[in-house]
Amino acid sequence: MYIVHSTFKVPEEKAQEVISIYENRSKLVDQAKGFKRFLLLQNNTKKGELTVQLEWDSREEYLNWVRSEEFKQIHELEKKYPDQELAAIIPQVQQFKVVAE
């Protein structure tokens, strides 16, 4: 299994707005080959710190997703979000290979 974290910080007063966006996400990734699960995580002590966790069968299937037209579509929509402060956020991405369960 392969896990990708995209962590970003938003002003705490905008955290719920961002959570709502993800609650209503397009779910295009859900149909990608090898996709297992999406989670949005909120830091317990820093409410404005959010992490998108994507779980995949393999690194190769994740990379296929990143190269796909659907991935590009989603990220183009993000750039057009009305709140430019949120649209300009660049997440810190970490990738993990699961080595034990």
Automatic annotation (TrEMBL):
It comes from the Bacteria. Pfam families: ABM (PF03992). Gene3D superfamilies: 3.30.70.100. Residues 2-90 form the ABM domain. InterPro entries: ABM_dom, Dimeric_a/b-barrel, Heme-degrading_MO. SUPFAM superfamilies: Dimeric alpha+beta barrel. PANTHER family: HEME OXYGENASE (STAPHYLOBILIN-PRODUCING) 1 (PTHR34474:SF4), SIGNAL TRANSDUCTION PROTEIN TRAP (PTHR34474). This is ABM domain-containing protein. It comes from Halalkalibacter akibai (strain ATCC 43226 / DSM 21942 / CIP 109018 / JCM 9157 / 1139) (Bacillus akibai).
